[in-house]
Amino acid sequence: MVSYSKLLAMVAPEYAMRRVQALRVTAAYESAKPGRTHKVKRESRGANAASTESGDSLRQQGRYLEQNNDIAKGALDILVNRTVGMGIIPEFMVEKKNGDLYDEVNEQLAELYEDWTRRSEVTWRDDETSAQRLGARTFFRDGEVFAQHLIGPTRGLTHGTEVPYSYELIEPDMLPMHNHNESKRIVSSIEMNGWGRPVRYHVLKTQPESIARVGRLVPSSDETRAIASARMSHLSIRNRIRQVRGVSVFASVLKRLSDIDEIDETERVAARIAAAVALIITKGDPSLYQAPDPDDENANQRELDINPGTIVDDLLPGEDVKSFVSNRPNNQLIPFKESQFKSAAAGLGVGASSLGKNYNGNYSSQRQELVEQHDHYGVMWKYIVERMERDKVENFVRAAMMMRNGVVLPDDANAASLYRIHFSRPAMPWIQPLQEAKAWATLTENKFESTSGIIRSRGASPRQVRKQIEREERQSQEPKTNEED
Questions:
Q1: What is the pLDDT of residues 435-461, one digit of tens each?
Q2: Backbone angles phi, psi at 204, to 5 degrees
Q3: What pLDDT was estimated at residue 134?
Q4: pLDDT per position as a tens digit, 322-362
Q5: Which run of H or of E encompasses 345?
Q6: From CA 458, how far away is CA 427, in angstroms rounded?
Q7: What are the CA-CA distances from residue 149 to residues 96, 166, 348, 385, 395 (Å)?
Q8: What is the per-residue pLDDT for 304?
Q9: Distance separating alpha carbons of residues 134 and 138, to the nearest angstrom
Q10: Which of 402, 424, 387, 386 is nearest to 150 (CA)?
Q11: From residue 170, how far is each of 88, 125, 175 by CA, in Å?
């Protein structure tokens, strides 16, 4: 008797082969075999197919949540505050050929950069810190953000400072997800070479007119402009190899956040209804009940004035007054929401205590959560720095050397150190400041850590701190004048 597999191989050999391979997998791993208690869900599409089909919807849902859901807005605030904080500040580390820092060059670059941050973005509406926070917020909420770098004379653009460099922040809507061209290797508006490296970005010339325009219609070549990858930075949340476009940080928690919001609203409505009911009048013995006079219009409109010490003595025969005991608000709601906050926090990558604003617990648990989350925020901070902020600062240095009376690299400087830059990071908050400050002091005394490294870990610039200390020391050494003289 011919088996089903052999018979299938005669008709569809490729399908028969895949079927045999699938049977071998399910025979080896129980998790791969669907059953009554195990519903197998698969994602068989390619990385770009999944992000293209879902990217627009996830982005739009994330924006709606930010506007209407306090939990989502709070999560974005936490991510931005822990990665960008009050600004990612570069520290220039140009060196001499003997290895010493070239203080004069670094000071000149720092002063020019401080002035440039006032109008670094093309619209002049945000300073550098505000633009960094806005870009990071777009990155987390939408899954990606783009920046076009403009150095030197640019048609229609006036640079905000004497350094001839500005950048333009671009939302992902400006690069339609469904703009594909297989012959030109364009996937979701990003053109790549044979190795999958982006070479050009196809950006709409004007803002998209509607959601439908962004989501489905493929723009013509006249509607887009191609920007070389050397002039673009692309910061994106990507989870798969060769994935081109980013996916919102809300992707895995959208349903949970919506459910929490709906449960909250339901409980609030139930609590309002319960608060509106004060007393219940029971009729008691039906034989004593007297029907209201049909000719009396006010017979059914009874009001009881309730004040402290009120005595109810105008009940009808057979009536009795009972107080209304409500089970709202639900006492089980708070522990239930706390468990949901923990699950949502795990998907969003934020601390559960910070998300739920619940800081109960002992020192060890709080410290453990703080340290664990600080590492996660550090990973995201590093990604933002390497994929966006470093591009900005390197372009700033190039422009500063191009400008009239700009930065000139001396002959005794190490040219290879020109783009050696350290970036500040938001500091991890101290739970016990005295003990932790003593720990830093011990590290510096035993030369396990440098003073500059500690200052950077606190989110400050060593150059600025040293200048402030020197200024204070000079002021303390100056003779004080006698006010009476």
A1: 878 887 888 888 888 887 777 777 777
A2: -60, 140
A3: 96
A4: 776 777 777 788 888 888 888 998 899 898 888 888 777 77
A5: helix 333-348
A6: 5
A7: 29, 6, 30, 15, 8
A8: 66
A9: 6
A10: 402
A11: 20, 14, 9
Whether the per-residue pLDDT at 433 is higher than 80: the answer is no
Residue 142 near residue 57, CB atoms below 8 Å: no
Higher pLDDT, residue 11 or 198:
198
Closest CA relative to residue 160, chosen from 128, 206, 134: 128
Question: Where are the extended beta strands (E) located within 144-291?
Answer: 144-151, 165-170, 186-187, 190-192, 198-204, 224-228, 232-236, 279-282
pLDDT at residue 222 in the model: 74
CA atoms within 13 A on the CB side of 290: 7
Instruction: Tell me which of 306 and 156 has the higher pLDDT.
Output: 156
pLDDT beyond 50 at 211: no
Is the distance from CB of 128 to CB of 117 less than 8 angstroms? yes
Per-residue model confidence (pLDDT) at position 480: 61
The label of the residue with tokens 């140009």 reads 94
Structure tokens at 118: 């006032």
Identify the pLDDT of residue 215.
46
Q: What is the pLDDT of residue 404?
A: 80
- How far are the Cα atoms of 112, 276, 278 from residue 323, in angstroms, in the given order? 73, 12, 7
Check if the beta carbon of residue 54 is closer than 8 Å to that of residue 178: no
Cβ 65 vs Cβ 250: under 8 Å: yes
Tokens, residue 472: 């204070």
Please list, residue by residue across 197-225, b when 16 or more beta carbons sit within 10 angstroms of its beta carbon and e when fewer do. ebebbbbbeeebeeeeebbeeebeeebbe
59-88 core/surface letters (b: 16 or more CB in 10 A; e: else): bbbbbebbeebebbebbbebbbebbbbebb
How far is residue 342's CA from residue 71's CA, in Å, rounded to a whole number? 12
Q: Cα dihedral sign for 406, 412, 418, 423?
A: negative
Question: How many Å is the Cα radius of gyration of the chain?
Answer: 33
Q: Which of 29-33, 42-46, 365-369 has the highest mean pLDDT?
A: 42-46
Q: How many CB atoms lie within 10 A of CB 267?
A: 15
Place of tokens 């990858």: 229
Please report, as a single letter, which amino acid is at residue 246. Answer: G
- Strands of the 232-236 sheet, one edge to the other: 165-170, 144-151, 232-236
Instruction: Give the up-direction half-sphere exposure of residue 78: CA atoms within 13 A in the CB hemisphere.
Output: 23
31 has pLDDT over 80? no
Amino acid identity of 474?
Answer: R
- Give the residue from 305, 178, 209 showing the smallest Cα distance to 186: 178
